[in-house]
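Hey,
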Amino acid sequence: MLKPRIKVKLAELNKKQKELCEELDVTKQTLNSWVNGRSMPTLESAFKIAYILDCTVDELFEYIDEDE
């Protein structure tokens, strides 16, 4: 399972979700869904988010082993 860390990265950069929505050309609902883990962005979108937030895709998502 992947746990998104988008909110953490936004906070580190003092950036608003609205700004990221505009840069990605997605709705607030879509971004909110990604941030809260209800859905995951496409690989292309994940790379765009990482580029905008100046981090790697690995830093945006934390893998959690559900079997532990």
